[in-house]
Amino acid sequence: MTTATLSFRSATINDVPVLVQMLSDDPLGSKRERFETPLPEAYITAFNAIEKDPNNELIIATIETEIAGFLQITFVPYLTYQGGWRALIEGVRVNKRYRKQGIGKQIFQWAIERARERNCHLIQLTTDKKRPDAIKFYESLGFQATHEGMKLHFDRLNS
Hints:
Number of strands: 5
Number of helices: 6
CATH class: Alpha Beta
Shape: globular
Strand content: 25-35%
Number of domains: 1
CATH topology: Aminopeptidase
Helix content: 25-40%
Radius of gyration: 16 Å
């Protein structure tokens, strides 16, 4: 386990290349991300939309000045649960250099506290069934697979 203290901050436009590299740095991400120079404009467009939305936060965890990990947390209002808010976690990554050192747990502890600050009644996330280690990790944090998630992917080239 690491004894390093994490600092948390909002991502900046200058972080985007490192974040895309981290997103692409695993077997599933390498098939869907495009880490190249120059970075595809779609990533910059997405970052700008996230940054402008007060219910979206792209959060960086650093050790000194190095990015140790990140996640996106989105706050979503619902009519269900008496008009309750949920926090949705997406795009969680830990820098390869810092994996298996407790960084992911610290990032999630931060996210859970942030959801409480925003008066959310729950946090939800999805994880690919092809990521059994991630599933075990989320379960170790108290997450439960209470629902069956479904997705419908659109072919971006034909839309």
